[in-house]
Amino acid sequence: MIMEQQLEKISQEAVRILSDLVSFRSVSGSDNEDIITYIADYLISYGLSPKRISAGRSHSNNLFVTIGESRDGGVLLSGHTDIVPASGAGWDSDPFVLSPRQVCGEEMLYGRGACDMKGFLAAILALVPRWIEKRLGCNKEPIHLAFTYDEEIGCIGVDDLIAELGSCLPRPDAVLVGEPTLLRPADGHKSASRYITTVKGVSTHSSRPASGVNAIYGANHLIAELQRFAGEIQSRSSRDPEARRFDPPYSTISLGTIHGGTAINVVAEQCELGWEARALPWEDPQQYLRHIEDFSRHLSETLPDGKKLVFTHRLDSFLPGLSPKASKAYGYYQAMMVAGNKIPQPTTTVAFGTEAGKYDQAGIPALIWGPGSIDRAHGKNEYIEKQQLVDCCALLSKL
Ligand SMILES: [Zn+2]
């Protein structure tokens, strides 16, 4: 049984660690050596042996550590060390100094990353001594911790870590990814595929447009098709009763950017479209690209007077979806709730992509479960409710 005073001590430690973590400007894409060294030193001070994992593609590292016997099985608690940028403009306090404030009688902790997701990292670090103690002299299954990099720019860093699970690193039975869900278990999200489509025509003087091929006009046909196709997909994908668990309850297509032409008096040689498809996790994410490829091929072949447009489509980034299913990961959540005398909640889904989809794709069941609300993430005056941290520590202490 965890005593009230013990929990109070662990929560205070979590706030202290969170304050240190927030002070690191670990913005995605920048070197994360400082924050990784801080976490590694903390783990080493408890006699653990954290490993830096990187494929050398970046200056940043993931960190992995096992508490208990170093073997396959057990649960992996995973969180990212990177944050989205914060300039300080529009903030009521320095985003890199954890600032507690009372709002309507509740204590909120302000700082960039406090919610997404250094709060979760602080909670798991504060519980390290307790988890070590619980595993002394018994063969309780191990707990693994992962601290990843560059999650906010496409979940890039975790790939290096997943590649080592089951070879250089133990392979866990399940993963809890601590993204902010207000401690509700989430077992699904859509996949996200981003594409850059380039349309190439023939440039000429605008006084004789018929002698060229206008790439913007070509792109215009494609834009209309993207919009029409989005409607078709919406009505098709929303027929699945399972779709109702997602918000919005259908797959989506959206055009985000358009760049084309060089001057008003020049027929545009090139136009570039940036678009994305967010597919319900059981849908084939490549079907949208195939449709757009077929459409553009047909368009080019049917231009009058033998004129040609050249379309190329490049995958800019892909994040796999997380498919809802009864999994071992939910089992760990359920066990924590039961041990904490709480009724486990049914799973929900989230609207944002996470590393959980990547673990799931690698065959390791994953659940998203963490303190704080995603509504507080990424914006100015990001905060986490202190009570969320306390509740998170209380439940994690049951592992
Ligand atoms: Zn996050």
Task: Walk me through the structure.
This protein has 399 residues and is of the alpha/beta class. It has two domains: 4-188 and 321-396, 3-Layer(aba) Sandwich (Aminopeptidase); 191-319, Alpha-Beta Plaits (2-Layer Sandwich), CATH 3.30.70. The protein has ten helices and 15 strands. The strands form four sheets. The protein has a six-stranded mixed beta sheet with strand order 1-2-6-3-7-14. The longest helix is centred in the middle third of the chain and has 23 residues, at 215-237. The mean pLDDT is 95. Zinc ion is lined by residues 80, 116-117, 151, 179.
Largest sheet: 6 strands, mixed
Determine the mean pLDDT: 95
Shape: elongated
Tell me the strand order in the biggest sheet: 1-2-6-3-7-14
Residue share in helix: 25-40%
Tell me the Rg in angstroms.
Answer: 24 Å
Distance between the termini: 12 Å
- Superfamily (CATH H level) name of the largest domain: Zn peptidases
Estimated share of beta-strand residues: 15-25%
Unreliable parts: none
Q: Which small compounds were modeled alongside the protein?
A: zinc ion
**What are the secondary-structure elements, in order, as H or E?**
HHEEEEEHHEHEEEHEEHEHEHEEH
Q: Which topology of the largest domain does CATH recognise? A: Aminopeptidase
Keywords: Amino-acid biosynthesis, Arginine biosynthesis, Cobalt, Cytoplasm, Hydrolase, Metal-binding, Zinc
Pfam families: M20_dimer (PF07687), Peptidase_M20 (PF01546)
Family: Belongs to the peptidase M20A family. ArgE subfamily.
GO molecular function, one term: acetylornithine deacetylase activity
